[in-house]
Amino acid sequence: MRSLSTKLLLAFLGLSLMGVGLASVLARWTTVQEFDRLVLEQAHNNFLNEVTVYYQTHGSWVGVSEYFHQKSQSLQMPPRPGDPGNLRPPPQNVGAAPRQAPVPFILIDQNGYVVHAVPPYRPGEYMSANKLAQGTPIKIGSQVVGTMLATGSAPPLSEQEQQYLDRTNQALLVSALATATIALLLSIVVARTLTKPMRELTRAIRAMAQGKLGVAVAVRSRDEIGELTSAFNQMSADLARANQLRRQMTADIAHDLRTPLSVIGGYVESLSDGVLEPNPARFDVMRQQVEHLQHLVEDLRTLSLADAGELKLNRQRIAPQTLLEQTASMFEHQAAQKQIMLRVEAEPGLPEIAVDEMRMTQVLGNLVGNALRYTPNGGHITLAAKRHAQKIILSVVDNGAGIAPDVLPHIFERFYRADTSRQGESESGLGLAIAKSLVEAHGGALTATSEGVGRGSTFSLDLGLA
Ligand code: ADP
Predict the structure, then answer these.
(1) Which of 142, 195, 279, 443 has a 20 to 30 Å separation from 91 between CA atoms?
(2) What would the pLDDT profile of 104-146 be if each residue is shown by its tens digit?
(3) pLDDT reported for residue 150
(4) CA of 411 to the centre of ligand 1 (A)
(5) CA nearest ligand 1 atom 20, residue
(6) If you take atom 23 of ligand 1, which residue's CA is the nearest one?
(7) What is the DSSP letter of 410?
């Protein structure tokens, strides 16, 4: 039995059959019990009426036993025409048909002696007061003339009553069968509904295994299976995106390597062929291209180390303000050239943070370098530090070009450059990706916000306290 739907089907069916069976047995048992009680109650009332009428007619219990004896005999034989039947006309039974079988009651006179008996009691047997207390007194007016006592068991059922019980049993059986059929149908529907998304998921996973990334499965419910399907869809989309990024990155690396290599290759060929004369300017161009290549290779190495979690950090305690001032001093000259006001604003008394000073300066330097590039002349850039709960937040705020909302989610991606016209310049499009990896290696987070194009950008570094 390998299929989950078969297992579910059998489990549902087994459970519902058990429920139906139990309910039927209980219903039948209660019906029989109630029926017996009702029959006994009726027989009790009939007997009480009959003996009361007997006593009223005869003034004593003499002959009562014979009366019942004859009555039961005449009931067992079909009455002949003209046969008077009983010695006396049968006493009227209140609200019930006469019973075909001897009634299970005994009659005791005022003195405690049995005057009409059914086994195991014998006529003339003396009944103790205790026993009498269990019976029903027979009263004529206010005078107690005897006691009737049930012998315990209900009288056997009449043919009519037996038929009624049989019909009830049949109805129970039919309803049990109908319920079991409905349960079977429902089980099939439930089992199929539950397993359908799983079958779809399995198909989608197999398709992924064969290299078809980005497949999505329809989410049909909000339950755990629906959540599983959503999680799968998310994973599938992420994988497809990661794969797309990987391809893009390979293409970008190839592109970024090709430009400087072809420049260097062209110069080397022309110089060796004597087409070009070697001069310092030409060597300088080649040196720049080699530096660009070295830079790119170093960036890729840093990223791959960070990806593998193997980036070695040489953490040392340093005041946030010192870190910001060191970074600002590196860019003072460039800022002055663009008449950009570069300032440091650190909350006083901030605790020290434990960071790799060189790596953190690289991160901040990257952010300030970008800010200088995207801020027009006369703008301003602020390096700030403040405390928020158990974190120190360093930020680089500029009032430059800003970042469009559709660009913002992508700026930390590798090789992402919003301005594609700048491709091939010294910027690799890896700067923010590396900065983010370095901050995350420190256990922090790097985020960017911008009010929109032309309204400046803010890059924030959340770092835990040392
Ligand atoms: P690049 O080497 O091209 O600068 P980065 O990873 O450093 O690559 O930045 C990615 C992109 O983020 C940039 O192309 C630019 O569009 C955007 N960006 C980064 N910093 C800023 C900033 N301060 N203001 C506006 N845009 C920015």
Answers:
(1) 142
(2) 888 988 888 888 888 778 888 888 888 888 888 888 888 888 8
(3) 83
(4) 6
(5) 370
(6) 371
(7) G
Nearest-angstrom CA–CA distance, 27 and 32: 9
For the chain, where do the domains classified as CATH 3.30.565.10 start and end?
315-464
> Could you tell me the fold of the domain covering 244-308?
Helix Hairpins (1.10.287)
Give dist(CA 68, CA 102) in Å, integer. Answer: 8
**Crossing angle (nearest 10°) for helices 357-374 and 320-337:** 30
Contact 268, 283 (CB under 8 A): no
Whether the CB of 299 sits within 6 Å of ligand 1: no
| Angle made by CA atoms 154, 32, 163, in degrees to the nearest 5 | 90
Long-range contacts of 324-328 (CB under 8 A, 24+ apart): 324/364, 324/383, 324/384, 324/385, 324/394, 326/361, 327/361, 327/364, 327/365, 327/368, 327/383, 328/368, 328/383
- Say if ligand 1 is within 6 A of residue 296 CB: no
Asked if residue 381 lies in contact with residue 397, where contact means CB atoms within 8 angstroms, the answer is yes
Element spanning 463, H or E: strand 457-464
- Ligand 1 pocket, 415 CB below 6 A? no
Which one-letter DSSP state was computed for residue 87? Answer: S
Domain with CATH 1.10.287.130 in the chain: 244-308
Does 370 contact ligand 1 (Cβ within 6 A)?
yes
Nearest alpha carbon, ligand 1 atom 1: 429
The b-or-e profile of 394-403 (16+ CB within 10 A means b, else e) is bbbbbbbbbb
Whether residue 361 contacts residue 323, with contact meaning beta carbons closer than 8 Å, is answered with: yes
Does pTM top 0.85 for this prediction? no
What mean pLDDT comes out for the span 266-278?
93
pLDDT at 341 over 90: yes
pLDDT tens digits, residue range 63-89? 888 888 887 776 655 444 444 434 334
Q: How much is the mean pLDDT over the chain?
A: 86
Residue 17: alpha-carbon gap to chain centroid? 27
**Mean pLDDT along residues 326-347:** 96
CA of 290 to the centre of ligand 1 (A): 23
Nearest CA to ligand 1 atom 15: 418
Write the pLDDT tens digit of every residue in 427-455: 678 899 999 999 999 999 999 999 989 99
Q: Give residue 145's pLDDT.
A: 87
CATH homologous superfamily of 315-464 equals: Histidine kinase-like ATPase, C-terminal domain (3.30.565.10)
